[in-house]
Amino acid sequence: MRQFSLQTRLIAFILLLLLTSVGVVAGLGYASARSSLKAAALAQLQGVQTSRVKLVSELLQASRNEVLALSGLPEIGQMSAELRAGYRALGDAPPDAATRAAVTAFYDRDFAPALSRGIDATVDPEDLLPSSNAGWRAQAAYLVPSARPYTGSQPLPTGADSTAYGRGVADTHERLGDILRRFGFENILLVDPDTLEVFFSYQANAALGTSLETGPYASSNLAEAVRALRRTQNVDDYRMSDFEFYRPALGKPRGFIATPVFDGNRLVAIMALRLSTNKIEAALTNEGMGKTGEVFLIGPDKRLRTESRFMQEDPKAFVAGLRRSKLTTHTVDQIERFGTAVLLAPQAGEAAEAALTGRSGVDADDVDYRGEPVFTAYGPVDLDSLRWAVIAQVDQKEALAPVRAYAAQALVAAVGLALLGSLVAIAYASRITRPISALAAAAERVGQGESDAEVMPPKDPELRVLGESLNRMIRSLRAQKAEVQAQAQESERLLESLLPASGAAQMREGGQDTPRSFADVTVAFVNLFGLDALALTLGEEAALSLLSDMVGAFDEVAEGLGVEKVRTIGSSYLAASGLSAERPDHTLRMVEFAREAVRIVRRFNAERGLELVAEVGINTGPVTGGLVGRRRFIYDLWGDTVRLARGIVSDGRTSIQVTKPVRDRVQDLIAFGPAVTTEIKGMGRIELYPLIEASTSRKAVKRDEGA
């Protein structure tokens, strides 16, 4: 059989190269089209975002100007002075038994249960009662008779109170109605600048009669804004309070603008008007942004301040999508239960961070709060000391849909040309190109990492040597790759099993001797008691196996919550959250981990008839961490934050106790018992807060261990 020369086969290779060029041209066209479409989408988003920033800024400035105009009306100052005088007169006489009973019943039966459901935490009605005589009498006259169920926005019942204050309320309510509707505000509160008591509310609201200095809502954003104005002498002074889960509105998101009210030159009240989210959301319209485009606000905590379009359009599908995202189950449960993503859905990423630091721009590689890849335009909105960010986003899938259609058309054209060229090439040199193509394909697969791409050596003497050499090279590479992968996997497995992520990273970087400081980390010590007694009863091996099973269960829970195990010492387990990855909710994650750890111990007790006791101490703050040792090393954390957490002990009962910084961060989401002052060795007397959980005693365990 005639053998074709290498020159003849090179001609066939050139033909193949020409056909390949079709694919290259198509690929370049695709890349160019994609780049152009992405640039156009980002430019459109930036235009939308810029216009929305302007609209929101103008809206907030208009709201501020309206509030200042309203507070500057002489009739507002006069009405406020008369109302305050009437309210103070209510305090001259103590409330009678019937008044106290009516107000107490309102909180016991209506408000406290509704608030507990609204904020997903148990609320003690006793903590909500007014503290002044005027507060008791005002709530009995206006809060108790209001419509049920309580929402915090029902019309104020007027006419039943015959006191001077009651006449003033009726007159003020009637005269303010048209003014509020004209300015577009939903509610107005008047606060005494001397006592910070709310002496008037246009709507029947639980804030009436309470002190924003010492009362149940003293820690709210509104109270902070009011306190900043109590000594002002500037009629144009104002403060904005960011949206929060406002308790008088049963935990619904609320924001306010506060400003002083003067009667002549005398400061008589601080007026707080509720911001209308409807106006803000109307300014952030999603019109013209397709099926997935939206514009929304985020606050300094990087959480939504306006409702998600997906929550408005299809709440069930939205929540189902969130459950597939990286959001915690607790956060998704709250969004589903409260029926809103405002103040709950977090928008993380570099774009959000940049906007909140005052920068504007676009991001072509962002991920939204649903976990979807998006194109983003961002920028800040500033008013007073409050900074929000306006985010405009569209899903990358939707924005790049036209280029995918182009890719499909280009692929069809490329396939057609390739088939035509192949038919021509086959007619002249099918047999010649086959061995070359086989060798080229094998070499390509090897280049792509395939380790089993051996070929049958061609019969042509010139190509047989190349084929056999290629096969030997493939076999050698396969053996070397397998050996390297096995060694790398074993090393990585050992490293990750011994150290947390930050310690493993430090080890990979070769920084064994350089400890790192972490500004804000939450740590927990889980101390198990009763294992010594089990060792005497069951034997050392059984006790050690039990401890291993329990630590393994702790590890699984920690991994699921994004909490890192630092190390175990005997029957103690040290864990940290916010160590290797910055998480805004690292304290809440650690509290959830502690809960799960206690549940695990109780489950082991129930399933195996044990009496183990778990004591958990949680603290948050700065820590220092690093590798300790030279040839044999461990990863450890140290500092006052760790020492305090390690020193937390209970009275011998299964418990979770946290320090005040931990309680302050999660108290709106987690229920705690009253503070307990405890002496901790080397730290002095520390206030600790027990998590409200069922507990079990370890006194019996101690007796067994001492026997």
Per-chain topology:
Blueprint: H1 6-71, H2 74-90, H3 97-119, H4 133-142, E1 154-155, H5 164-183, E2 188-191, E3 198-201, E4 203-204, H6 221-227, E5 239-246, E6 252-263, E7 266-274, H7 277-283, E8 294-298, H8 309-313, H9 315-323, H10 329-338, H11 350-356, E9 361-367, E10 373-383, E11 386-395, H12 396-399, H13 401-447, H14 461-498, H15 501-508, E12 516-529, H16 531-538, H17 540-561, E13 564-569, E14 572-577, H18 586-608, E15 613-628, E16 634-638, H19 640-647, E17 655-659, H20 660-666, E18 676-680, E19 684-690, H21 699-706
Parallel strand pairs: 15-17
Antiparallel strand pairs: 1-4, 2-3, 2-7, 5-6, 6-7, 8-11, 9-10, 10-11, 12-14, 12-15, 13-14, 15-16, 17-19, 18-19
Fold and architecture overview:
This protein is an alpha+beta fold and 707 residues long. It is built from 21 helices and 19 strands. Strand 10 and strand 11 form a beta hairpin. Helix 1 crosses helix 13. The C terminus is likely disordered.
Q: What integer value in Å does the Rg equal?
A: 35 Å
What proportion strand? Answer: 15-25%
Number of E-type strands: 19
Ends distance: 97 Å
Based on CA inertia axes, which overall geometry fits? flat
Helix/strand-derived category reads: alpha+beta
Mean pLDDT: 84
Query: Biggest sheet, open or closed, and with what strands and sense?
Result: 8 strands, mixed
Total of helices = 21
Low-confidence parts, pLDDT < 50 over ≥5 residues? 694-707
Helix content: 40-55%
